[in-house]
C-alpha cells in the first residue's frame, strides 16, 4: 500500500490510498468538505442546542475534521469532548507535508501536530475548549461509557470499504448517540440512507458541499 499527497480542488491537500484507490477526502475540496459536511451540518447545528458538545469521529485519518472542530469550538466559546477512532494511524512525516497550516489560524498550527503526536487511548487536554481522546480501535469493536451529540462518519466510501457501512455498524453508532443526536456523512447513497432509516434514524438528504450534489444527515429521535 502506498499513501501519497493529493491536491484537491480548493487547493487543500488530502492523501491518496493506492490499495483502495481512494482519497481521504473529497477531491473536490478537502477543507471545504470538512467545514460544510461535518462542522456546519453537524457540530454547529448541535452547538445551537448545547454549550458542551460531545463528538464521535469515525475515521481520524489526517486529523482535518478534528483540528477544524477544535478551532471552531474556540471561536464559538463552546466546550468540546472529541473521541476519534482510527485503526491505521498515519506517519507524522506524512502529516507534516499536508498544507493545512494555510487554512488554520497560526495558533492552531502547532496544535495540529500535537494532536497527532499525543498518546492513544487516553484523554488529552488540547486547549481550554477542547479535549481529545484518540481510540486505536475500529467502530465494530467500539464501546464507550458516554453518549455523543454528533457523529462524524468519515470512513472510506461504501464502494471501497463496504464493511464500514453496514446495519451493525450504524446500530452501534445509534446506541452511542443521545436522543436528538446528529449523524453526518458525505455519502448520499440510497442504500446508506435506507439502512440508517431501518436502524431508526430520521434521515434527510441535504445539498452537498461545493461541487457535490448531496450528503446525508440523520437524527436519533
Q: Enumerate the strands of the largest sheet in spatial order, edge to edge or round the barrel.
A: 6-7-5-4-8-9-11-10
Question: How much beta, percentage-wise?
Answer: 25-35%
User: What is the C-level CATH assignment?
Assistant: Alpha Beta
Based on CA inertia axes, which overall geometry fits?
Answer: globular
Structural class: alpha/beta
- Cα separation of the termini: 41 Å
Q: Which CATH-level-2 architecture? A: 3-Layer(aba) Sandwich
Please report the total strand number as a whole number: 11
Number of separate structural domains:
1
Order of secondary-structure elements: EEEHEHEHHEEEHEHEE
**Rg to the nearest angstrom?**
16 Å
**Could you list the spans in which at least 5 consecutive residues all have pLDDT below 50?**
none
Enumerate how many helices there are, as a single number.
6
CATH topology: Rossmann fold
CATH superfamily: Vaccinia Virus protein VP39
| Biggest pleated sheet | 8 strands, mixed
Share of residues in helices: 25-40%
* Overall average residue pLDDT: 97
Keywords for this entry:
221 residues; alpha/beta; Rossmann fold; 8-stranded mixed beta sheet; 3-stranded antiparallel beta sheet; 6 helices; 29% strand
